[in-house]
């Protein structure tokens, strides 16, 4: 149950963050805004590291495979794409499309056991849920 609640909180925070970042970009520009997002995230992580515990920073060198260390770079791309999509589509449509893309890619990662994740069998119910979500996008996009 706690995982479910944390996932809901994550989605809510991503939507609010996307709107905040889009507004900051209007004043500062894309890359200043994106750099601020990454810097402020680093600052929060540094403070939490000081407060919550002292995991060894040198452990990062032992991460394998090394491409797994690209999460921060991907984060910069995520910030850019969220800002651009909210500018073009607004927060609600952007969030809907982002969530569908996340769900689709996550399911493909599970199906093929990519990036060290455990391989999951094909499930018609999950595939049907994804199709239903796509139908939901079509309904949400419908203009009267």
Question: What would you say this structure looks like, in words?
Answer:
The protein has 144 residues and is mainly alpha-helical. The protein has one domain (2-141). The chain is 76% helix and 0% strand. Helix 1 crosses helix 2 (30-52). The protein is globular. The mean pLDDT is 92.
Give a short summary of the structure:
With 144 residues, the chain is mainly alpha-helical. 76% of the residues lie in helices and 0% in strands.
List keywords for this structure.
globular, 76% helix, 144 residues, single chain, mainly alpha, 0% strand
Present the secondary structure layout.
Layout: H1 2-28, H2 30-52, H3 71-89, H4 91-112, H5 124-141
Point out poorly predicted stretches. none
Sheet with the most strands, sense and barrel status: none
What is the helix content? over 70%
Which structural class fits the helix and strand makeup? mainly alpha
**Apparent shape:** globular
Please indicate the percent range of residues in DSSP E strands (runs of 2 or more).
under 5%
Q: Mean pLDDT score, rounded?
A: 92
Provide the domain count.
1
SS summary, helix count:
5
Let me know the number of strands.
Answer: 0
Straight-line distance between termini: 39 Å
